Amino acid sequence: DAGITQSPRHKVTETGTPVTLRCHQTENHRYMYWYRQDPGHGLRLIHYSYGVKDTDKGEVSDGYSVSRSKTEDFLLTLESATSSQTSVYFCATAPGMWGEKLFFGSGTQLSVL
Amino acid sequence: AQKVTQAQTEISVVEKEDVTLDCVYETRDTTYYLFWYKQPPSGELVFLIRRNSFDEQNEISGRYSWNFQKSTSSFNFTITASQVVDSAVYFCALSTTQGGSEKLVFGKGTKLTVNP
Questions:
Q1: How does pLDDT run along chain B (116 residues), one tens digit per residue?
Q2: Which of A33, A38, B44, B101 counts the most CB atoms within 10 A of its CB?
Q3: Between the CA of residue B93 and those of A18, A83, B13, B45, B55, what are the distances in Å?
Q4: Which residues contact A109 (CB under 8 A, 6 or more apart)?
Q5: CA distance A52 to chain B (A)
Q6: DSSP 8-state assignment for residue B98
Q7: Do A104 and B35 touch (CB under 8 A)?
Q8: Which of B45, B46, B105 has the CB atom closest to A90's CB atom?
């Protein structure tokens, strides 16, 4: 299995505070993704990266920003957390070729009160 | 725009029953990939299968089989003789390269419960 570590695994925060989630991979995969999973919505793409400092928006990117300064790390920041951002966040990676399967991290349960 | 529809939100079966999970996709691309992922109650997402748009052969892996039909834009997943361990949420996904960048879209998932 690909070595993908998400931290923290659980977080409770208050509305209006900034939050950063970290995804670390040891597989040297080029592509990295952040998804959120909500009941009734499945998995929705927030942002993705196709290389160091190369990122792009997904379908639900409002209120989120990302950074990738190293191949192995992909950070997701909630600039000012809102209750609607309470969700399970998954990081995923892929080697780089289009159509490759994704390797997922274990997820981060975020609760915004 | 590409879209994946998993019309069955939840399915409940009794052990040893066969069950089919439906997946219908929409895309204008002629080249694309389809995937199935499994999410057991523990929460991790596990890759099951990938199929490209040029390969319409059905796939069988043990008790699992997949039926890809381009004519109906469907990529259905059948579990034969279901077991309790098959209880999970199953996601179908579509990967295309619209606009020159890769787009991966997931369906909303089907929750399968296999009762003993």
A1: 789 999 999 999 999 999 999 999 999 988 999 999 999 999 999 999 999 998 888 888 899 999 999 999 999 999 999 999 999 999 999 998 765 667 788 999 999 999 99
A2: A33
A3: 31, 28, 24, 12, 16
A4: A9, A10, A11, A88
A5: 16
A6: G
A7: no
A8: B45
